[in-house]
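Dissemination and training. As part of the outreach component of the grant, students in the summer workshop were shown how a complex can be specified as a set of sequence lines and then modelled as a single object. The example used during the hands-on session is reproduced here so that future cohorts can follow it. Participants entered these lines:
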Amino acid sequence: MINRINPIFRSVLCGASAAFLVTIVSGCSRGRPSEKPPIHVNPNMDIQEKVTVQSANPFFADNSSMRTPVAGTVSRGNLREDTVYYEGKDENGELVRSLPVEVNYKLLLRGQERFDIYCAVCHGPAGEGNGIVTQRGMLPPPTYHDDRMREKSDGHIFDVITNGTGNMKSYKHQVSVADRWAIVAYVRALQRSQHAGYEDLSDIEKARLK
Ligand code: HEC
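and obtained this result:
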């Protein structure tokens, strides 16, 4: 009769009863505590020699399994050779005068959105240095609307966001490189909005003034 049972089912059945027997014999059935470790019926690759993160490893002089990457190692997609774009600095290490990306309406909108999220709390929505935190006791940051700040390079603003300055912390982990340039463009737009001249008016507005 047993021969008539599907062979796959039969081997499963045999395996299961063998495992059951092992369990009984080794005495680790329910309610029978044992000092011995449980029997591992199918070890597969569960137990193997390997190094795990932060484990000790006497193979290396510093006894650690963690290795420092070889100097000059670059992870894929992180070459960042273009220092103008990634650091706001030219080949001589000087901060760039103007931003290396095309300024268009979309970039300004993105910059406005990011500025309002990350900068306005301190710098104020128009960059006057009167953000909400200054009403709660924080020293106000400088306004963007004086000659000193107007004369700063785009690279300087990018660098301040990236590395911070004085009392302002770095925002490089919160704001991506692309978004930093968008914010730089928006800060420039804010400055111009508070310092517009006749030449900034549209033809219609100029005509209205006549
Ligand atoms: C937590 C408050 C705070 C936030 C948020 C903040 N700043 Fe500042 N920022 C300051 C303070 C304070 C200073 C003045 C630093 C000093 O000179 O000690 C400053 C200075 C600056 C300056 C002037 C640097 C100079 O040359 O004097 C720029 C430009 C600037 N921040 C841009 C930004 C931008 C862009 C963001 C958003 C990504 C931002 N900040 C977010 C507080 C802040």
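The radius of gyration is 33 Å. Students were then asked to discuss how this feature might be tested experimentally.
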